[in-house]
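User: Show me a protein chain along with its predicted structure.
Assistant: Here is one chain, sequence first, then structure tokens.
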Amino acid sequence: TCQTFSGSWGYHRDEMTWKDSRQLLGLLIESVSKGGNLLLNVGPTARGVFDYRAVEALNSMGEWMKFNSRSIYGCTQAPEEFQVPEHCLLTYHPQTNRLYIHLIEYPLQNFNLPGYKGKVKYAQFLHDGSEIAITAPQGYWIKVDVKKEDLNLKLPVVKPAVEIPVIELILE
């Protein structure tokens, strides 16, 4: 995918449609989750420097990549056997047999993974390496279809302080 930071392929001083780092990370993750890659066009000013908005977005993306690059580099589309949870994107690293769940919207504490039972050995957040407890499917106060072949991850109540949290699943 080839994208711009704003609505223009070159620098335009009065451009008001700049993408923020969250939007750009979403584009990157979505591209990889579909087996592609991302090319970002950054147009310099007439003085040959990048606009501060592009610099801030690139710096934020770089900070996110420091801890989450394993979910991008060498990754591709996830095998079809893994259903994509709601408000998430999946990437898969075939050489390491690891599946990455990108939490575009942070879910409730009990995160249901439909059909994942027996396929996952270990789960952790990439940003800090903290283990995520794998539990049996649990009921909810809202109606959710929970099946015996589902897996549940017990997430922290508060969203981690990272733009888009990533869960690394080490598969069987």
